Amino acid sequence: MSADGTKPPVVYVVDDDDAMRDSLVFLLEPLGLAVEAFASAAAFLAGYDPDRVACLVADVRMPGMSGLELHEELLRRGAVMPVVIITGHGDVPMAVRAMRTGALDFIEKPLNNQVLIERIHQALRLAETKLQAAREVGAIRARLDKLTAREREVADLVAAGKQNKAIAHALGISLKTVEIHRHNAMEKMAATTGADLARMMTLAAGTG
């Protein structure tokens, strides 16, 4: 754990083949990577940390939930973890399905270790970026929740580029009241300009 209390990035390995799990751990740990291995998708889902910078290396064919189904389940849960799919029985439909759902790569066994290591480093960099973005959106939405209904109305119009006089007319309130609500909304949102507020509102809406 780092000085600020955060856990280091981790590579999650999910494969029902004991030998493959062990070989991946032995490959990655000497590179200074934290690795946690699971024998099934269910075990992984019960044990992973969604708030940690991480990537997932998952086998396609496993008893119960497959690697592709695991990836799709993570997407349903809103996870931002990049996924690398590995398989000893790859085919074109599987690869297409994996890439369409956003898998970072689809690698066939026997694995090219250098390619896998490069993909994992790429995935961890992407994971950090995605997790930081998700945390920013979460913080913005938490601040939005603190706005009163009227402050939110004013904030929406400020974000749309409306001037105070136009906002007062649109909402049927005085210019002074708009100024008060605008000041309160900007302060609660920690926004310095209308453009800054517009960026936050776009991110919170999931359209940025």
Automatic annotation (TrEMBL):
Domain HTH luxR-type: 140-205
InterPro entries: CheY-like_superfamily (IPR011006), Sig_transdc_resp-reg_C-effctor (IPR016032), Sig_transdc_resp-reg_receiver (IPR001789), Tscrpt_reg_LuxR_C (IPR000792), WH-like_DNA-bd_sf (IPR036388)
Domain Response regulatory: from-to ranges: 10-124
GO biological process, one term: phosphorelay signal transduction system
Listed SMART domains: HTH_LUXR, REC
Entry GO MF terms: DNA binding
4-aspartylphosphate modification, residue list: D59
Keyword terms, alphabetized: DNA-binding, Phosphoprotein, Transcription, Transcription regulation, Two-component regulatory system
PROSITE patterns: HTH_LUXR_1, HTH_LUXR_2, RESPONSE_REGULATORY
Name of the featured protein: DNA-binding response regulator
Organism of derivation: Rhodoplanes elegans
